[in-house]
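Notes to self after the Tuesday call (sharing in case useful).
The group wants a holo model before anyone commits to mutagenesis around the pocket. I volunteered. Ligand is glycyl-adenosine-5'-phosphate. Logging inputs and output together so the record is complete.
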Amino acid sequence: MAESKLTMEKIVNLCKNRGFVYPGSDIYGGFANTWDFGPVGVELKNNVKRSWWKRFVQESPNTYGVDAAILMNPRVWEASGHVQSFGDPKMDCKNCKQRFRADTLIEAHSKGAVAAEAMTNEQMEAYIAEHDIKCPHCGVRSWTPIRKFNPMFITSRGTLEAESDKVYLRPETCQGEYVNFLNVQRTSRAKVPFAIAQIGKSFRNEITPGNFLFRTVEFEQMELQMFCREEQSMDIYADYKAKALKYIEDLGLKAENLRFHDHDKLAHYAKAACDIQYNFPMGWQELNGIHHRGVWDLSRHQEYSGKSMLYIDPFTNEKYIPNVIEYSIGADRLTLALLCAAYEEQTLEDGDTRVVMHFHPAIAPYKVAVLPLQKNLSEKAKEVYGVLCKKFMCDYDEAGSIGKRYRRQDEIGTPFCVTVDFDTLNDNTVTVRDRDSMEQIRLNADELAAYIERLVEFN
Ligand code: GAP
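Result:
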């Protein structure tokens, strides 16, 4: 296969055809910016979430997990500033009436070279005119002025649908961490510095140029808030920058496709902020954020709830509102980056071709596939499968030639294929094929689980 450029279209097609991700509400013609994870995709995303939890909660002694409600008291969103000022810069195409975000149009046009979030509306309008950025839908340049649009989804609670019943689907998970700051501190006897982490769904009424999982209306965030003293805060901020980068590199994103983007324009309360950007097929884009939020969030919740958010230092009895360092990454966006990073079209020595997904074994949807060489070996193969599936997600396939079955597993990134053949019946040995090198070794079936377990760990 001639080496060809990775496009989002290739990733979308593979995902749809191999059971990673389907368009949302597919039989109704889809539903803009929604996607459904299929049998292979749900395993991949769950493994990504597990790897994050393992790294940032399980292996971080001063970090505590929560799972807060999606629907929160609406006052939370007044305190957070989302009701008053959360808004994306939107513009409509006067010709085809489609709506777009001005900042994403600029970022897509400049392939991520221009950081539009630092621009005013006037600067974005001027940039769009100067670079003749046309409507991606109809190809005409006839834009309305930029307006702010609040992307929070509103629903109502109770039966009256009155203003007082109005509730919001959370647009970020971190508020569930702030409102539980003292609950967690008290019940876990936590001492500053400590962090609260959460993985959960967020919702934003996004209008996007359609980059698959990159920006969707419903997505999962993996967020962590570290509460600390002001004098420790810049060191902790630097530490999370390093930890965030190491985590995604350990998962398989290459250093040359990652870069820090320090924000020039900071919120008035912020002391520092940066993103880590990934070089997606559509260009450099934000993958995650690390923000020094000062005392803003807890102070605002203290003001709006009327409840003290003061931390009492157990050693000095000093009372203060801690500073917050936030680390936030989208599980779907990271899954997309990992899909892009894993994809390879290979021409093999014998001229044959294959598409192979080189996932880190810890996030591979299936750790192992059991393949009987012939159908009449299925009884023994099912016995092997029965042992392995108690330990790992395991696939079983007896349809088609062995070569075709290997290719199917390569395309979903299964790190090991175990072949049961006639020798297995005599000596209980199987062939284990490595996805990346395609090398094969012979192992006793009883040793398989321990062999694979060692190689699929995430450390
Ligand atoms: N609490 C801070 C916060 O929500 P954000 O930069 O708006 O900050 C954090 O979002 C991360 O969540 C992003 O870096 C991205 O990975 C993910 N994210 C945000 N909006 C998203 C969307 N519409 N679709 C998918 N992922 C999204």
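Two things stood out.
The chain has a mean pLDDT of 94.
The radius of gyration is 25 Å.
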